[in-house]
Structures are given as structure tokens and as C-alpha cells.
Amino acid sequence: GFMAGQGAKEIVVACNTATAAAIEILRSRHALPFIGVEPAVKPAVAATRSGVIGVLATPATLASARFSTLVERFARDVEVLCQPCAGLAEHIERGDLDDAGTEALLRGFVEPLLARGADTIVLGCTHYPLVAHIVHRIAGPEVSVVENGTAVARELARQLALRGLRRLSGTGRHAFWASGPIDHAGRLLRALWAPDVRVERLPETDPAALSRG
Asked: Residue 127 in 3-state DSSP?
């Protein structure tokens, strides 16, 4: 509701777990179009040569009915190895993008997939592309590493064009709000996005109002 009030034309739910948990509810409650994200199982199936793909994702994403449906639709003819990555998103949110602890955690997740023949690894959380370089280092050049960011951006552009809302000229602007501590969010965004990023506090939301829809 806050984003709609800011003039959003379309909203991307840029989290696999949040998509699985809430995308249908959001679509039922708001007139705005919502684009969800899902682990890139379909392109991984197209890329695999060994017939074995590994999926790195949060435990909640892997346990969701939406993920099960995704595998059933697109991966019937390959072996899908699901690797819950408890704690990895938290490492990334702390800004630990290239330290020994994050690499050790990833080795524990990735090496068992390689040992079972996976030649394609899906980064099934929108945090994980920030440590894709470590996954590549562990897996080696013969293993494909896939994520869904480019596909989501294309779908966003397509949906805007279909509705006649796509801006064809000029420069856009960026604004950032955080529901958590803005100092921490600001440090991360200045490191990852641009040095002049400013982050504002997202207005508090009444949980009772959310439950009422």
C-alpha cells in the first residue's frame, strides 16, 4: 500500500520466499500488477548436460507448495537436488560477501551437490547472486550457475509495455526505504549500489490492518 501511494506502476516481490508465501494474497488485495520471483529451475533444466541440477535456496522456499509445483512442471526428466541454505542470507545481509566464513558456508552447501553430479546450480534466493563469484570459485568453470534477475527484469519491461506504462526516454530515479535499521541498510546500499544512496524509514504498519486486508 505504501508503494502504491508513492506512485508505483508495478511491484516486484524480489524474494523467492515472500513470493511463495504472499504473491497471491497481494494480487487479490491490490489493483497494481505484481511480479513474483521463483528459482530458475526451467533454465537450469535447459542448461544441464548431466541431468542433475542443484538448487540453493532458503528452507522456506524449498518447503513451499509453489516450489514443488515448479519442479513438477519443468523438471520431471532431471534429478533436482535441493539444498537448504540456512544462515546464508543473513551472512549476505551483514555484508559478508567475500570472507572466509561465507565461503566455508557455501562450500558446505555446494560441494555435496557437485559430488552427486550436479553440473548446473540454481541461485534460488535473490540474495545469492551477491556471492555468485564464490559459487563459481567452488564449482569451477564446467558448472553453470543460473539465477532469475535478468528474466524478472525482462518480464517487468514486458508487462509495463503491455499496459502502455513503459517510459521510453529520460532518466529514472531511485528511492530507498527500509523496514529494518536504516543505518545498516544505508551502509550496504552505498557499498552495493552507489555512494550517495539515502535510505528512509518505512512507515510503521498496523498488523491488525494487514489481517483485515
From this structure: coil
